[in-house]
Every structure is written in structure tokens, then in C-alpha cells.
Amino acid sequence: MGAVSGGAWLLTLADKGVFALTMMFVLVGISHFAKPEKLEAMIPAHWPYRRAMNYLSGAAEIILGILLLFPATRMWAAYGLLLLLIAVFPANIFVARSKPNLYNISRLFFQPVYMAWVWFFCLR
């Protein structure tokens, strides 16, 4: 990350984008553990293992988010996050249909933005 110039660390735009992605995914991942009932409400009630799915996706967000920071693991972490975002998209559709409000509907539009963000800063 970055280069040293005149004793100060200079972060490139890509470095800043990766760091912001890491912070976002780690914080969202932590929320899966801090408020599990909120995120489990996005999973249809008839699906088995809702708590396990919530914790597994939260752990994946934290681990993959951290792995973005390291050039050696960035590509694999980015692909993992793209797959995770695709996998959880049905939950966003479910919550937007079952509890339609601005926040729940907006999640449908932000998911592709997050995917583009991952691609732009980690894979292109």
C-alpha cells in the first residue's frame, strides 16, 4: 500500500478504495454478531439454520474484508466477496418484498454498487 515520499505515507486511490471496502465489510460483518436478530429477519422464516447462515456470512465478510488488505490475497478475497454478495442478494429481495420501505428497497440498488466497487478497486 502506498509509497513513502518525504517521510509521509501517500495512499493511492486504489489503496483508499480497498481500505474503505475493508472497513465496510468488517463493520457489516461485526453487525451480524452484534445484532443477529436484525439480519436474521432478512432470511425467510421457513429456511433452516438461519442463525448459522447469519453468523457464517458475517464471519465471511470480516475475514474476506481483512484479506483485501494484502496484495497476495486481494484477488481471492474480492472474488469471495462478489460470490457472497450474489449469495445474499435473495435475502435483500425477500426483505424488500416482505417489508417494503425505502431502506429495504434501496438495498437492492446498493448491492450492484458494492459489487462494482469490489471489481473496480480489487480486480480490474
From TrEMBL:
Matches recorded under Pfam families: MauE (PF07291)
Keywords: Membrane, Transmembrane, Transmembrane helix
Location in the cell: Membrane
Membrane topology reported for the UniProt record: Multi-pass membrane protein
Spans traversing the lipid bilayer: 6-31, 52-70, 76-95, 102-121
InterPro entries with a match to the protein in the record: Methylamine_util_MauE
Protein name: Methylamine utilisation protein MauE domain-containing protein
Organism phylogeny: Bacteria, Pseudomonadati, Bacteroidota, Chitinophagia, Chitinophagales
